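Study this chain:
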Amino acid sequence: MRVLPIFGLCGISLAATLAWSAQAPQSTQQDQIQRADAAFHAGYAAAANADLATARTDFELAVKLAPDVEEGHSALGAVLISSRPTPTPSASSPKR
């Protein structure tokens, strides 16, 4: 199981960051903050359980709901990088 390095930085509450950066009317703003925070935490839990497909979906939702919050983008990027297949040397690769 790979541990995603970005999750060591998750001590900052996404909700607190969202509250600081949100600019929508109060009721809509609060709903988006709660939904983005829930999606972020669900993505974090999924990634911790090596369910990268679910983590990606959850982080994409968090980014959609709160595009100005960089933690969501960072977490999504970490999942995307971790989801890439590991390249294997091919017969045509130059030998070193």
